[in-house]
Amino acid sequence: MFNDSEVLEGFKHGNQRVMHGFYKEHREPFLAFIQKSFSLDPDAASEVYGDSFTALYLNVRNGKLELPLKSSLKTYLFAIGRNHALKKFRKRKEVYVEHLPEKGEGPAVESALEQQETIALVESLLQKMGEGCQKVLRMFYIEEEDFKSIAAALGVDKPASLRKKKFDCLKKMRKLLP
Amino acid sequence: MNQDYDIEKIEAFILEEMQPDERAAFQQEINNDETLREEVSAFRQILTGFEGAKVKNMTRQWESEFKTNKQQRTATVRPINMFRRRAIAAAVALLVLATGWWVGTSGVTDDALYATHYSDDSAYENIKSGGEGTASPLQQGYDAYKNGDYEAAIQFFTGVAMDDEYYNTAQFMLGHAKMQKGDFDGALGHVSVLGAGDDIRYRDEAQWMTVLCFLKSGDEKGAKATLNSIISDDRNPNQKRGKELYNSLTSIWRQVSF
After folding, report:
1. How confident is the model at residue B233 (pLDDT cuts 50, 70, 90)?
2. Do residue A167 and residue B7 have CB atoms under 8 angstroms apart?
3. Across the interface, do A2 and B42 touch by the CB < 8 Å criterion?
4. What's the whole-model pTM score?
5. Do B131 and B246 reside in the same domain of the chain?
């Protein structure tokens, strides 16, 4: 599949083929590792994987992980997963310690829970907004629709007007931020 | 919060969509204005949340696809004891039939079609026009490719930066090198982008390579969709062989070969 520098480049540009390839490549070993380490059921392990992948992606996008890497991206991913599972399932006893990536990989592997909190915060802010703003922001930023498609879905005549609406909605959202 | 701040500018800064000089000037503004700094930080948090929500949605969708595929595979291999004997008999009959039809079908398998339709002549044309025997900046990669050391070629061409004038050439060579290595998913990452791009030096051939990579990756749907795009484009030099390949993919022999 892709090497680490290709994955970094792909993540930076949101290349979905690269993202999907990386996700698929490490899914099985990650799930086996996390299920065995924390005695999780498959659904919980899948959730940890999704959260960890998202955190790794955001760390790359936000410039926290750049070449040259101290470890492979796989190691970062597994370390994020381990730390995330430790925090998420504090009450569970870690039963398997062999082959665990080292702790202390820096801020990039410490932030999965914080990233999830940021996502939850934005989701909760969206819920507090009017229906129009919710749809525009969700379709543009989360579903990656262009203004033409959003206009068609919302029955708006002028797609260009949605650009201004998007920024107005963002400002409203900013006001709601604690 | 100061309402006068230009939110479009803040978003462009966070998403790294500014020109370098504009970015440097805005960075200076941020350094000198604590309130602006707080605004940028707040919007960064919001945009990070959106980006995370987007990726989380993707991973949920992928998970759902993985689970569906797994269920389908399980259902396919589940034994049905009561029909076992008949199934074995049917399998033997099918085997005999398949052996008889092998001659007819062997020319339309993915491997056979790939062998017929893939050639790396375009890689060698590239090497030649890139200055074989002269001091081309990509010479090291070209040499590795010519020597069949595709791993070294991949390593070299991967190091060509996006802002390098030879970037597309390197991507094209990466596509060939990965196809030679049998890494068709990896090759797709390069040729599909070039095939959809506007660099006319590589667009048509990369599109053709995309079809073949899809085929070898087991994604016949993707191969057909790309072929349709080639066939419907009258200026495409691969239109004729595109039709031939499409006919092979839809031929009765291929239907009975799977």
Report:
1. confident
2. yes
3. no
4. 0.57
5. yes
